[in-house]
Amino acid sequence: MSYEYNWKIRFDDIDRAGVLFYPELFRASHRAVEDYMEDIGFQFGEIVEEGWGMPVVHAEAEYHIPLRYGDLVRIEVTADPGETSVHFDVIGYTDNDEVAFEVGETHVTVDMETFETIEVPPELQEALAE
Question: I need a labelling partner for 67 at 20 to 30 A (CA). Which of 12, 14, 78, 126 fits?
Fold first, then answer.
């Protein structure tokens, strides 16, 4: 299953050169992942209250074309759950369907009390597979 998130590049997303300031890509990527998780019934704040969490243990990005103020980006998120982690691929497309960026985020599932790794809950595995 993939999830779509729309992002308009705002003035506070760009740097002095007029292009996307690189940390803003990670912020938008994480927002898209967070909305995807919420959409399938796993809101991050709620799962922490349940005693487990999904901190990011690895993130990387590849920028293909510069994004500027006012650009509209369609972000597609796909998930690849493993035994104790979920890897999210986040790809941004321009309104011309050009790939603007690719982000990879790996989240490990942990017990929030001990911060020890736990298995990805079966309910989450199922939700990500639909």
Answer: 78
The predicted structure's pLDDT at residue 78: 98
Q: Distance between the two ends of the chain, CA-based, in angstroms? A: 6
Residues 6+ apart with CB under 8 A from 8: 70, 71, 72, 73
- Separation of alpha carbons 7 and 44, rounded Å: 20
Residue the block writes with tokens 């890897």: 87
- List, for the chain, all residue ranges whose pLDDT scores fall below the cut of 50: none
Beta strand 72-81 with 85-93 is antiparallel
Phi-psi region of 66 (alpha: psi -120 to 50; beta: other; left: phi over 0): beta
Cβ-count burial of 125 within 10 angstroms (0-12 exposed, 13-18 middle, 19+ buried)?
middle
CA pair distance 21, 14, nearest whole angstrom:
5
